[in-house]
Amino acid sequence: MTSRRAFLGGAGAVAAAAVALPGTAAARPELFFGPHQAGITTPQQGSMQFAVFDATAENREDLIGLMRAWTLAAARLTAGLPADHLGTADAAPPGDSGEAIGLDPARLTLTFGFGPELFLLQGKDRFGIAAERPAALVDLPLFPGDQLETGKTGGAIAVQACADDPQVAFHAVRQLARIGAGAVSLKWTKAGFCAAPRTKGTPRNLMGFKDGTMNPDTADARAMADYVWAGKEGPAWMEGGSYLVARQIRIALQHWDQMRLGFQEQVFGRHKYSGAPLGKTDEFAPLDLDATDAEGDPLIPATAHARLGAPALNGGAQILRRSYSYSDGADFVAERWPPWRQAIEYDAGLMFMAYQKDPRSGFIRIFETMSRLDALNQFTTHVGSGIFACPPGATPGGWLGQGLLG
Ligand code: HEM
Predict the structure, then answer these.
(1) How many domains does the chain have?
(2) CA-CA distance, 264 to 253, in Å (whole number)?
(3) What gap in Å lies between CA 287 and CA 274, rounded to an integer?
(4) For an engineered disulfide with 228, which of 40, 224, 237, 310 has Cβ 3.0 to 4.6 Å away?
């Protein structure tokens, strides 16, 4: 384990380097400092590296050292700088692994969140913060159909790195893991992609449907205050922060590809190519949940994903979805029920990322019904899960999580 002295020494070196930040920023950076963390309402970048860490630090001081060092490194990386001075001494490891040297910052954002395990692990309050755990940071219930793998569930600290260049996103998480050695250890990572269409507009997921149409408008400050940013209802250290619910959802793509177009559209309650609600032509037309067809059946089926996600059916609940598709090769799948298939199938799907003011009135409220009734469930399996309290942004000179730990 890195000694505390070495750890803080590292942080000091980064601090010195960070003084040179203004003016040295390369093209197209996103701002790191601000009232909210970047990467939540930031227009979605093309790539994501999501990483969850276990906390191995033994005391609060070491955790503070970590968050200070990560804040400084994150500010540098976001600006397109190496995590630390590269160094030229043959005898010491370089201050950055180097694969982003010469690359554009590519709108890199780094978003940090604290999981329930940071506050209390096996009954132990290692960092003296158990009393500060927000009520909104609940343990997610087990939902019908969940097949969660322990290695991809829970965790103490999450980092969402997004950039328009996958190498930049990978590099950033790798530097944070390196800097955090001794205080955190990597639990799991997931790489995701989300291609913006040539003609702009809503990106599509691997099921071929536009995904994100009915998201609350990130330019609407009122909507963000109502649905995304934590306010005065919880602890002061979370004010201006947000809660992330992350779910790795595997999709049976080969099975889906055999479904008739009309059926695919019934599953979502939307037309595939335009993204419009069934019976409409405009993607952004409101869902008419009362509309019926010639037989008097609901035009948007009772089991349609869009109906079950609609605020009108969920007490007005809204969440900000910022998901990425993933593809991890292919593996053997055996179905013991009809159609009794055995085959090598894609291990691919959606890394579902949703930000909200309070998961109890957001994700949980919506997914309680969805997990039981959604026609989409025939094709999806939730295999990973995490909930994280993402504190507000840091101000220059300050550090992320200072309100909680400082
Ligand atoms: C692989 C899994 C999933 C896929 C492929 C998927 C896809 C979609 C699509 C295509 C839409 C319609 C367009 C839009 O409004 O963005 C949609 C809407 C929505 N989805 Fe999902 N989704 C998935 C999982 C989930 C989960 C787990 C939740 C849990 C809360 C969820 C919540 C919503 C909500 C709230 C809406 C908006 C409904 C509305 O306001 O009309 N989705 N999703």
Answers:
(1) 1
(2) 12
(3) 14
(4) 224
Quote the pLDDT of residue 198.
75
Count how many Cα atoms sit within 13 Å of the Cα of residue 254 in the half-sphere of its side chain. Answer: 13
Q: How far is the CA of 305 from the centre of ligand 1 (A)?
A: 6
pTM score: 0.93
Does residue 260 fall inside a structural domain?
A: yes
Residue 29 has which token pair?
A: 């950076």
Q: Are the C-beta atoms of residues 371 and 142 closer than 8 Å to each other?
A: no
Q: How would you label 176-195 residue by residue, b for 16+ Cβ within 10 Å and e otherwise? A: bbbbbebbbebbbbbbbebe
| Pairing verdict, β 47-55 and 157-163 | antiparallel
Residues 200-226 as b or e (16 or more Cβ within 10 Å = b): eebbbbbbebbbbbbbbebeeeeebee
- Flag whether 91 is in a domain: no
Q: Which atom of ligand 1 is nearest to the CA of 209?
A: 10
* Within a domain: 291: yes
Answer left, alpha or beta for residue 170, where phi above 0 means left and psi between -120 and 50 means alpha: alpha
Enter the tokens of residue 350: 């959606």
197, two tokens? 């269409």
DSSP E strands in 74-225: the ranges are 109-114, 157-163, 184-193
In a domain, 24, yes or no: no
User: In 3D, which of 388, 380, 386 has the Cα closest to residue 144?
Assistant: 380
Give residue ranges with CB within 6 A of ligand 1.
Answer: 205, 207, 209-214, 247, 249, 251, 268, 270, 287, 305-306, 309-311, 319, 349-350, 352, 363, 366-367, 370, 380
Strand 242-251 versus strand 342-356 pairing type: antiparallel
User: Residue 369 pLDDT more than 90?
Assistant: yes
Q: Residue 172 C-alpha to ligand 1 middle, in angstroms? A: 29
Which residue bears the tokens 């979805």? 321
Q: Say how far apart CA 67 and CA 73 lie, in whole Å.
A: 10
Pick from 236, 192, 234, 187: nearest CA to 211? 192
pLDDT digits (tens, 9 = 90+) for 271-317: 999 999 999 999 999 999 999 999 999 999 999 999 999 999 999 99
For 372, residues 6+ apart whose C-beta sits below 8 A from its C-beta are: 144
The yes-or-no verdict on residue 323 having pLDDT over 70 is yes
What is the domain extent for residue 342?
Answer: 1-18+33-86+97-406
